[in-house]
Automatic annotation (TrEMBL):
Protein name (database record): Pentatricopeptide repeat-containing protein
Family matches, as InterPro entries: E_motif, PPR_At4g14850-like_plant, PPR_rpt, TPR-like_helical_dom_sf, TPR_rpt
Species per Swiss-Prot/TrEMBL record: Sphenostylis stenocarpa
PPR repeat residues: 78-112, 179-209, 210-244, 313-347, 348-382
Pfam family, one: E_motif
Gene Ontology terms: biological process: RNA modification
Length: 548
DNA sequence: ATTGATGAAC
C-alpha cells in the first residue's frame, strides 16, 4: 500500500518536474529544478537531464558552459545529448567547441547521425574556416550523408560564408529536389559574396520566395553599398512581396543610414511600429545608428533611452556613443561612456575607438591618452584604427611632432589615411616643413590619389615655392592622376539632391551658393574671434584650396 | 531535435 502511494507520488513529482522544466524561463529557475532533480537522487540518464541540457544549451537565456558541465557528468550520453551540446556550441561565441566535441565523439566510437552534421557544418561556417569545412564535408561523404538535403543546404551556406561561392554553387547543383531553403541559401551566398548580378538572377528565377529571399537580396545590396537599389527592392517587396520582418528592417534602416535619408528613415521607423514587428535589440541598434547618421541625434537618443538598461549590450552603447562623438557632442559622449560602465557593460575596442573620435572632436589630448592606455590595460590590442585616431587627436591639437614620433614608434606600418590626418594637421597648423615630409611619403604610398598632390602643391604655394608647386601639379598630370570630384548629398522632403564642388547645374544653384557664402562668412567670423592670435592672412589659406 | 538572415567604428 505504502509502496503504491510512494510510486504514485514519484510519478506526480516526475510529471510536475517535467512541466516546470518545460516552462523554465531563466538559468536561476533551471538551477533550482536541477537541484531538485539531484536531491531526489533521480537517475542521471532520465528525461530531466535531457531537458536541462536542452534549455541550457539552446535557450536564449541559457548557458552553454553549464550545459557542458551537466553533459560531462553523463555516464552514457545518448546521440540526442551529443547533438544538443554540439548544436549549442555551434550557436555560441565559441563554435570551435562543436568541432572538438564532435571529434571526441568520433574517438569514443559514437556514430554521428544526420542531425549532427548540420550543426558542425554551421560551426565551420561560423568559424569562416574553409579548411575545417572541407574536412567536415569529406567526412560527410565518407559516412554517406552527402545526399541529405538538410546537410547539403548547410554546406551551401558554409562554402558561401567562407567566400567560396563556386563550391557553394556545386553543392547547390548536386541537390536532387531543391527546396526553398536550398534556393535561399544560394541566393544569400551570392549576396554575401557581393555578386549582386548573380544574386538578382537567382532571385528572379525562384518560383517561390519568402521573407528571407527578399531580405537576403536587400541585405546584399546594402552590403555592396548599393543602398538605392536596396531601397527600391524594399519598395517592391512592400508592393508585391511578403510582409517584412525585423531582419528586413535592419537592412533597410542601414540603407537609410548610409544614404543620410532621414525622412525615409522616419517612415521606416513608423512602419516598424505600425506593423507591430518585434523590436529586437539589433533593430533598435540599427535605428539608433540610422538616426545618428542622418543627423537626428535627438531621435537616436529617444530610441536609445527607450531600451531598458538591463537589455542593452555593448553594440547599442557603441552606436549611441559613436553617434554623439561624430555630432561633436563630446561631453555627452564621455558621460555616456561612464554611464555604460555603471550599468556594467564592458567597453570593447570599438567603444575605445568612439571615445578617441570624441576626443579628436573635442581637442581632448589628455583624455585621449587615457583611453589609449586603458585599451592596453584592459588587455586589448590597439588596432590600426586606434593608432589612426590617436594621430588625428594629436594632429588636430597641434602636437605634430608628438604625432610624428607616435607614428614612428608604432609596431605597425602607418596607413595612408593616418598620414593623411597628420598631413592635414600640418597644413592647418602651418607646419610646412613636416607637411612636406609627410606629403611626399603620402604620394609614395598613394601615387594615384589626387588630393595628395594638390595638398602638397598648396603647401609649396603658401611657402611661395612656385616652382615646387608647379612641379607637383605636373607630376600629377604626368602620372595621369585625374582629379575626381567629391559628391555631397542632401535630402529634402525625401528627395535626395547630389552636388559636386563648383556645381552650378542644380535648379536652385543660385540660392544654394548665396546661403553657402553666408555660412562660410559666419564660420570665418566666429573662427577669427576665437583665434585672435592668428593672422587673417594665415587663415585665408583655405580659400586657395581646391581652386585647382 | 536538424538546414537559410540582422546591429556598432574605420
Amino acid at each position: 500500500m505504502l509502496g503504491v502511494s510512494l510510486s504514485c507520488k514519484i510519478t506526480n513529482l516526475n510529471q510536475n518536474l517535467l512541466g516546470l522544466l518545460e516552462k523554465c524561463k531563466s538559468m536561476l529557475e533551471l538551477k533550482q529544478l536541477h537541484a531538485v532533480v539531484i536531491s531526489f537522487g533521480l537517475s542521471q540518464d532520465d528525461p530531466f537531464i535531457s531537458k536541462i541540457l536542452c534549455f541550457s544549451a539552446l535557450s536564449n537565456s541559457g548557458n552553454i558552459n553549464y550545459s557542458y558541465r551537466v553533459f560531462s557528468q553523463l555516464s552514457r550520453p545518448t546521440i540526442f545529448n551529443w547533438n544538443t551540446i554540439i548544436r549549442g556550441y555551434s550557436n555560441s561565441k565559441l563554435p570551435i567547441y562543436s568541432l572538438s566535441i564532435f571529434l571526441k565523439m568520433l574517438r569514443l566510437g559514437v556514430a554521428p547521425d544526420y542531425f549532427t552534421y548540420p550543426f558542425i557544418v554551421k560551426a565551420s561556417a561560423r568559424l569562416l574556416n574553409q579548411e575545417i569545412g572541407v574536412s567536415v564535408h569529406a567526412h560527410i561523404i565518407q559516412t554517406g550523408h552527402e545526399s541529405d538535403r538538410f546537410i547539403q543546404n548547410s554546406l551551401i551556406h558554409m562554402y558561401a560564408s567562407c567566400g567560396n561561392i563556386m563550391w557553394a554553387q556545386k553543392v547547390f547543383d548536386s541537390i536532387q529536389g531543391k527546396n526553398l531553403v536550398s534556393w535561399n541559401s544560394i541566393l544569400d551566398g551570392y549576396a554575401k559574396c557581393g555578386e549582386m548580378v548573380m544574386a538578382h538572377k537567382v532571385f528572379e528565377s525562384m518560383s517561390e520566395k519568402d521573407v528571407r529571399s527578399w531580405s537576403s537580396l536587400i541585405d546584399g545590396y546594402v552590403k555592396a553599398g548599393e543602398y538605392r537599389e536596396a531601397m527600391s527592392v524594399f519598395e517592391k517587396m512592400r508592393a508585391v512581396g511578403p510582409k517584412a520582418n525585423e531582419v528586413t528592417m535592419v537592412s533597410v534602416s542601414c540603407a537609410c543610414a548610409h544614404l543620410g535619408a532621414l525622412e525615409k528613415g522616419k517612415m521606416i521607423h513608423k512602419y516598424i511600429v505600425d506593423s507591430g514587428l518585434l523590436v529586437t535589440l539589433v533593430l533598435q541598434t540599427s535605428l539608433v545608428d540610422m538616426y545618428a547618421k542622418c543627423g537626428a541625434i535627438e531621435e537616436a537618443l529617444l530610441v536609445f533611452r527607450g531600451v531598458s538598461k538591463s537589455q542593452t549590450d555593448v553594440l547599442i552603447w557603441n552606436a549611441m556613443i559613436g553617434g554623439l562623438a561624430t555630432h561633436g557632442l563630446v561631453e555627452e559622449s564621455l558621460n555616456l561612456f561612464k554611464e555604460m560602465q555603471m550599468v556594467g557593460i564592458l567597453p570593447d575596442e570599438v567603444t575605445y575607438l568612439c571615445m578617441l573620435a570624441a576626443c579628436a572632436h573635442g581637442g581632448l589630448v589628455k583624455e585621449a591618452w587615457y583611453f589609449f592606455e586603458s585599451l592596453n590595460k584592459c588587455g586589448m590590442t590597439p588596432s590600426i584604427e586606434h593608432y589612426a585616431c590617436m594621430v588625428d587627436v594629436l594632429a588636430r591639437a597641434d602636437q605634430l611632432t608628438t604625432a610624428y614620433q607616435f607614428i614612428c614608434r608604432m609596431p605597425i606600418e602607418p596607413t595612408a589615411s593616418m598620414l593623411g590626418a597628420l598631413f592635414s594637421g600640418c597644413i592647418n597648423h602651418r607646419n610646412l616643413a613636416l607637411a612636406e615630409i609627410v606629403g611626399k611619403k603620402l604620394i609614395e604610398l598613394e601615387p594615384n590619389h589626387d588630393g595628395r598632390y594638390i595638398g602638397l602643391s598648396n603647401v609649396y604655394a603658401v611657402d611661395k615655392r612656385w616652382d615646387d608647386a608647379r612641379s607637383m601639379r605636373e607630376a600629377m598630370e604626368r602620372r595621369g592622376v585625374k582629379k575626381s570630384p567629391g559628391f555631397s548629398f542632401v535630402e529634402i522632403s525625401g528627395v535626395l539632391h547630389r552636388f559636386i564642388a563648383h556645381d552650378k547645374t542644380h535648379p536652385d544653384s543660385v540660392e544654394t551658393y548665396c546661403m553657402l557664402n553666408f555660412v562660410v562668412r559666419q564660420t570665418k567670423f566666429s573662427f577669427y574671434k576665437d583665434n585672435k592670435e592668428k593672422s587673417l592672412k594665415d587663415t585665408s589659406m583655405g580659400d586657395e584650396f581646391f581652386l585647382f
